[in-house]
Amino acid sequence: MAHKNIDKQMKQIENKRAKDRIFKKDSSFLKAEENVFDVPTLKLLYTFSNKGYIRELGGSISTGKEANVFYATGNEGEIAVKIYRISSSTFKAMDPYILKDPRFTHIRHSRKDIIFAWTQKEFQNLLRIQKAGIRSPKPITCDRNILIMQFMGKDGIAYPLLKETRLDNEDAQLIYSQIIEAMRRIYVRASLVHADLSEYNILIDTENMELIIIDVGQAVTLNHPNAEEFLIRDVENIKRFFKKYGIEEETKDLLKRIKHRTEEDNIIPADPEEKAAEQEKEKTKQEEKAAKKEKRTTKQKEETTKKEEEDEEEAAKRENKED
To answer: Where are the chain's structural domains?
Structure first.
């Protein structure tokens, strides 16, 4: 019976899809369709369409381990629609980045809940990174496993990845300096670490040689227990890529530069969830401290009582002996 209901829903959606022509068919779209567009995802896409966020959904921009990104148009012009695959995402790889994030400690550990939280996390991280003065896709809206954001490109053509961009030594030095400054702003102003920064997560606007930071779903707050480890890994990735251009710098020197705060830096306030988590953490810390103090006091009282009892017993023995 359940299979019949799903088949019926799919048929209804397909009929509406053909009627409304929201989806633009091409080979990349068709190839991705089977793994991405389950019934709940299709329904949500139509909800976004009815609200004007999506007018036409086109071909695939990129396919990652957890998500597919599609080109689309809507009320905001050219947009990118990122759909996290619920059925085939390697969600276990998400655990270290989200379950220890103070903003998301409340979520359940199911595949669906982690993916929905990850989508929200990327939306929030994009907001913080933009406020820090870093060029990145403007987040427009998100729900469940779908994130809609600004398309980074022109006339349907996405900007190339750093990995794909031909650089001479002068351009490489310019981009390298921009990346280190972006890492500094992410760390100092946004209080985040990208945690997966490499030539695969940086776009280059080749018209003016400006970098664009993307794929920030895994970015963590500085109070994440692995934040420093992730930062060092990001630094090593950037060092490795630019070494071929003759650019070399010690890791400790780069970390010092990234953590340096200037007078121009405005620190972005913590998210409400992060504040609540910090308050809860402090409350737990104080409760543990009080419990330890009470335990010490109880132990001292027990030791005092025991000593008094031993003294009384010894005194009684002496009295009996004298008698």
So the answer is: 11-156, 158-258
132: its two tokens: 């820090």
Q: For this structure, is 215 an active site residue?
A: yes
> pLDDT tens-digit profile of 123-182?
999 999 999 999 999 999 999 999 999 999 999 999 999 999 999 999 999 999 999 999
Cα–Cα distance between 95 and 183 in angstroms, integer?
Answer: 23
* Alpha carbon distance 231, 241 (integer Å): 16
Distance from C-alpha of 82 to C-alpha of 50, rounded to nearest angstrom: 18
Among candidate residues 38, 196, 205, 265, the one labeled active-site is 196
Q: How many angstroms separate the CA atoms of 158 and 62, rounded?
A: 10
Q: Which two tokens stand for residue 295?
A: 């335990």
Closest of 98, 66, 95 to residue 83, by C-alpha:
66
Buried/exposed 67-103: b ≥16 CB within 10 Å, e otherwise: bbbbbbbbebebbbbbbbbbeebebeebebbbebbbb
Give CATH for domain 158-258.
1.10.510.10
Question: Rounded CA gap, 308 and 283, in Å?
Answer: 37
Rounded CA separation 115/85 (Å):
8
List pLDDT tens digits, range 113-129.
Answer: 888 999 999 999 999 99
Active site residue 196: yes
- Reported pTM: 0.76
What's the CATH superfamily of 11-156?
Phosphorylase Kinase; domain 1 (3.30.200.20)
- State the Cα–Cα distance between residues 21 and 320, nearest whole angstrom: 105
